[in-house]
Amino acid sequence: MIGAITLLLGCxxxxxxxxxxxxxxxxxxxxxxxxxxxxxxxxGKVPAPVAAVSDTLLRNLSLLFIPAGVGVMxxxxxxxxxxxxxxxxxxxxxxxxxxLTALLMVGLKKFTRVGQDSVGGDS
Length: 123
Fold this sequence. Notes:
Mean pLDDT: 89
Order of helices and strands: HHHHHH
Distance between the termini: 43 Å
Strand content: under 5%
Oligomer: single chain
Structural class: mainly alpha
Number of helices: 6
Low-confidence stretches: none
Radius of gyration: 20 Å
């Protein structure tokens, strides 16, 4: 388990270092997830300890939102002053996320259907 946690935090650290070195406008943990994903694709499967640690983190994900909630409460006056922009950003980003998720779902369904047709050909 310690090795799996070290792997996850190491990927995040690599992402942070990459962003610090390049100055790209991306969060370091996102780059770390790409590094982890690439490593898992090369490995071909998710090792059991990494899966166990990841499942535990996902089950307790709501605890990780507490600092974000505290941050919102800390800057509540700023949000009150900029409520139009914040509201527009929330609505816009939600709409974009829904549309992109739907497009991705349609694309993946077509992709998997093509794979099933070429393998089985029974549908």
